[in-house]
Structures are given as structure tokens and as C-alpha cells.
Design a protein that fits this description.
Length: 431
């Protein structure tokens, strides 16, 4: 028979059943330095991080979503990125800030940048540093070669280059970042041939049930699987969803609006735009556009598609036939993961107000092709390593909720064990 002291401790352990989850939060702090004072507000799934004004104590960032504050005036703020040896890093930025990836001393800009032509995504920029010179980053400063200790620098944008100077209200300082890291790749193989850029369509299938309103946040999309969905598109707001696409696969999406049979016509002529973003949040489509005519209930369809997902697409250049997909977009279909579909409806005449009534539509999604094996990754010595957790290469990782996880999936069980041990040790001290 157990002694009363042991029984008492067991009862206390049961009462503390919720403690491991709390301990997990503390154990998960990992390399990210959180501010001791008021930290920036973060959307669900984002890591709140206070950037430093000094290079030497810049907090280390983990892959995933990050929330911070834009600096003001002439101040520069810093965070550290630990780049895999020979690997690549990307940072998607949403906010009024100028971002660069530099050497640890902040003197050399190592990054290249890309931009989005999708007007609905304001304050968007995309910066990256490939592991070696590629067609998408044909020039990398020699002093950046081999660097594994990098700095992400943030500066306030030049007022003359923004419209904020004409407004009495200060610009929003909230900044959302998406950081991905990719190890060194060996055996890159050949880029996707022209057949992988041929037109494909997402079949329009009958739907039932009420119209669903998709998320209007690029970094918190709804998760969908291939198929057709009845949706309500609110003019002036984004409609965002994400779909899992594997190596060797392609994504097609289309929007039917106003949906056939809805008998609803827009009160003003509307433009419809659809585009894709890669798992790293780089735009991978020039976008497709269409017009919904005023007082017409005739259904129109707007659709687009990606090329085959292939790590070697970063080596595509203007000698390759990429069909209707621009080279800059095709070069970012290089990672399997969550591909984001973004839809935007607005009046053709900018002077017209956004209609209050949503447009009934049908969103069609199709993933084409059989999943293939991804690239081979290597460490600094060239030895093969396992593929990184999905959360390092794709916003949201492998979960079904929004946002990147600060915890690699493989570490959860170890943390639970550590948490349980911590409870036992604590109880021993109490006893």
C-alpha cells in the first residue's frame, strides 16, 4: 500500500494536469528573444519579437511568422538570422518598413528583392538570399558567400516614397514577417520543361450549402482541399485560402462570379483579380483578371495556374519557355507546401464606393500531378541530411490552423517529457 505522502503527491500531480501545456510555452522560447517590456501585438500563430537597436544583441529569429514594430525616424532595428551553411533564406514583409538582409556587421547588403503586382496587398515586399548564385539571384556580394550569421535590418521608409506624408495620421507601425530557411541542396536536377507550364484549369463543380466568407488576411488564410466551394466575395476585401501542393504537382484555381443561378447582378461594374503566393509568400503568378458588368447576372470565370513545383525552377531564365507565367514568378515555384490563393474584387471606377452586398461566387481548386520526391539536402560538409520540418519552408507548416509554429513538430514529444519531469521535480520540492 502506498504511503500517505506519495498519495498526496499523486493527487497534487493530477490537479496540475494543465501545467505541462504552460511549461511548454516557457520551454519553447528557444532562440527568439521576447521583449521584457510591452511587445508588439501578434496575430494568432505569430511570434512577437522586439528587434534591437544594437547589432550585438539582435534577437535570433525562428522560421515562421513574426510580429514586430517598425522603427521611426532614422532608427534602424536588427534581428539575427542563422542561415544554414550553403542554404537560402527568405523574408516576406507586410508593413510600412524597408527591410534588408545584411552581413553581421550591417555593412554589406546580401539580399535581393522582389515585389508583388497585386494591388490588394499593401505594404508588401519580399527579400531573399540564395545559398549560391542562381538565375533568380544572379549576383551575390562576395563578402556574403558562406555567411551563416546574418542580420535582418528594418528602417522606416522614405516619406517621399509613400503617401503617408500627405496624411495627418501616423503610419501603422505593426509589421508582420514570414521567415523561411532552406538547407543547402545537392542534386538540384533540371528545371521544369515547357510542358510543366501548359494551361490547366480547375473544373467548376456544383456546390450546395450557404456561401462561405473566406479570410481577408493574407497571413491567416482558410485551409481548403481541391474541389468547388460557394463563396461570398465582398468588394474591397481580400478573399484568401491556401491549398497543399507537393513536389511535382501544380495548382489551378478559378472563380465563377456572379455564380450561375444566383440571379444577382452587381450594381456597378467590378474588376476581379486572382493570384497565387508560394509557401514563402512570393507571388508566383502574374494574376488573372476579369470584369463583372454592371446590372449583369451573366457568370464570368477568372482562372490561373502554377507550373510544376520543382526546386530547380530557381534556375529558370529567359531561355526557358514558361508560357503565360513570367520568369520572376516561375522561379519561386521551388518549394512544396501551402500555396495561397488570393482574390480581390473592386469597382472598375476608383471613384465608385465599394458595394455593400457581396458577390455570390464559386471558387474552384485543382491540384494536378502525382507527388514526387523532393530535393536532397546537405550539411556544410556535404553529407546528406533529412528534409527540414515543413514549418521552415512553408508558412503554417503541416498544421491546419494559420501561421507558422515556433516549435518543430519533431520536438513536441521531447518537450512534453521535459514538462512532465519539471512537474515531478517541482512536486518533490513541495514535498
Amino acid at each position: 500500500m502506498a504511503c500517505p505522502g506519495i498519495l498526496s503527491r499523486i493527487m497534487r500531480l493530477r490537479k496540475l494536469a494543465a501545467v505541462p501545456a504552460l511549461l511548454l510555452t516557457g520551454l519553447a522560447a528557444s532562440p527568439v528573444a521576447f521583449a521584457e517590456t510591452a511587445s508588439p501585438s501578434a496575430a494568432p500563430g505569430a511570434q512577437p519579437v522586439q528587434f534591437s537597436t544594437a547589432l550585438g544583441d539582435a534577437p535570433v529569429l525562428s522560421p515562421g511568422r513574426i510580429a514586430t514594430q517598425a522603427p521611426t525616424g532614422n532608427t534602424t532595428t536588427y534581428a539575427t538570422i542563422k542561415r544554414p551553411a550553403g542554404g537560402s533564406v527568405t523574408v516576406a514583409v507586410l508593413g510600412a518598413v524597408k527591410a534588408n538582409i545584411t552581413s553581421a556587421d550591417g555593412k554589406t547588403d546580401c539580399s535581393s528583392s522582389d515585389s508583388s503586382s497585386f494591388e490588394a496587398v499593401s505594404g508588401y515586399s519580399f527579400i531573399f538570399l540564395d545559398g549560391a548564385a542562381t538565375k533568380r539571384q544572379s549576383y551575390v556580394d562576395s563578402s556574403c558567400d558562406g555567411l551563416t550569421d546574418l542580420r535582418l535590418t528594418l528602417k522606416a521608409p522614405d516619406p517621399s516614397s509613400t503617401t503617408s506624408s500627405s496624411s495627418s495620421a501616423p503610419p501603422d507601425r505593426d509589421v508582420q514577417l514570414v521567415l523561411t530557411q532552406e538547407p543547402k541542396i545537392t542534386k538540384l536536377g533540371s528545371a521544369t520543361p515547357a510542358t510543366g507550364f501548359s494551361e490547366i484549369t480547375a473544373a467548376s463543380k456544383s456546390t450546395s450549402g450557404p456561401d462561405r466568407t473566406l479570410s481577408d488576411q493574407l497571413l491567416a488564410p482558410d485551409t481548403l482541399t481541391p474541389g468547388s466551394y460557394p463563396v461570398a466575395l465582398q468588394p474591397g476585401k481580400l478573399a484568401v485560402a491556401r491549398v497543399r501542393v507537393g513536389w511535382g504537382q501544380r495548382l489551378a484555381a478559378s472563380v465563377d462570379a456572379p455564380r450561375n443561378g444566383s440571379n444577382i447582378a452587381p450594381a456597378t461594374s467590378l474588376g476581379v483579380a486572382l493570384t497565387f503566393f508560394s509557401p514563402q509568400l512570393a507571388q508566383v503568378s502574374r494574376g488573372a483578371t476579369g470584369v463583372l458588368s454592371k446590372n449583369s447576372a451573366e457568370q464570368q470565370t477568372v482562372g490561373s495556374y502554377t507550373p510544376t513545383v520543382n526546386a530547380a525552377n530557381r534556375q529558370l531564365d529567359y531561355g526557358n519557355d514558361t508560357g503565360d507565367i513570367g520568369i520572376g514568378s516561375a522561379q519561386w515555384t521551388t518549394a512544396a507546401g501551402w500555396y495561397t490563393v488570393a482574390i480581390y474584387v473592386k469597382p472598375l471606377d476608383d471613384k465608385e464606393p465599394n458595394p455593400s452586398k457581396p458577390v455570390p461566387a464559386r471558387l474552384n481548386l485543382e491540384v494536378v500531378g502525382n507527388p514526387a520526391t523532393g530535393p536532397t539536402y546537405a550539411d556544410a560538409a556535404g553529407a546528406a541530411v533529412t528534409a527540414p520540418p515543413a514549418s521552415q519552408l512553408s508558412i503554417g507548416g503541416a498544421d491546419s490552423s494559420g501561421g507558422g509554429s515556433a516549435l518543430p513538430k519533431i520536438g513536441i514529444s521531447a518537450l512534453i517529457v521535459a514538462a512532465a519531469v519539471g512537474v515531478v521535480v517541482w512536486l518533490r520540492r513541495l514535498g
